[in-house]
Amino acid sequence: MSKIDCRCCGRKLVYKSTSDLPFFPFCSERCKLIDLGKWVEEEHRIEEPLTPDRVDETDEPKGESET
Question: How would you write 4-32 as a 3-class SS string?
Fold first, then answer.
């Protein structure tokens, strides 16, 4: 048997296969919707690490040049 914690509330979940948990990796529809709301409100986000060439692009808006 496998064990996992609900990603929202931390409740311990025990299962043989993921089909045993209809809202995997969450314990309930409520926890699944709470997590979705966090993505929608941008509390959760995936950010791209800045590389030196990307920093240059963000410092100077396109179409403008220094004089």
Answer: EECCCCCCEEEECCHHHCCCCCCCCHHHH
Q: pLDDT per residue over 29-43, tens digit each?
A: 999 999 999 999 999
C-alpha to C-alpha distance for 5 and 13, rounded to whole angstroms: 6
Q: Is the dihedral of CA 4, 32, 45, 42 positive or negative?
A: negative
Q: What is the CATH number of domain 2-59?
A: 3.30.50.10
Please provide the size of the chain in residues: 67
Of the candidates 39, 46, 11, the one whose C-alpha atom is nearest the C-alpha of residue 26 is 11
pLDDT in tens, 44-54: 888 877 777 76
